[in-house]
Amino acid sequence: MEKTNKINIRVRYSETDKMGVVYHGNYAQYLEMARVEWLRELGVSYRWMEENGVMLPVVSLQLNYRKSARYDDVLTVEARLKNTPSVKIEFDYTIFDESNKIIAEGNTVLAFINAKTFRPMRCPDYILNKL
């Protein structure tokens, strides 16, 4: 199963260091933006899930940097569902520059958590049914 979604992001000045290079910590936000839009394309929003008792915290984040992104670059962030969700949901990511060269690759694992008990739970059916 591979459900993919892509978003474009223009690097803002505030996301760069003195050399105009994207600060490494900002890549995690780019992954989050792609993941949120992946869910939205599926017809589910983080807000709606939280309002309905499901939290989805990141339990693992891995990034490999290949090339620097710079101020005003337009990046494409591709989020791919790695496998069928269970208690966890895992995404792979590739970030491309405007010439389609790979800037970075990453992976996140998130856990479905019951908002009332703060205990792990299975992936809600409303997500599984859309896959």
From TrEMBL:
Q: Gene3D superfamilies recorded for this chain?
A: Hotdog Thioesterase
- State what protein this is by name: Thioesterase family protein
**Entry keywords, A to Z:** Hydrolase
Protein family: Belongs to the 4-hydroxybenzoyl-CoA thioesterase family.
What is the top-level taxon of the source organism?
Bacteria
What phylogenetic lineage does the species belong to? Bacteria, Pseudomonadati, Bacteroidota, Flavobacteriia, Flavobacteriales
Give the originating organism. Answer: Galbibacter pacificus
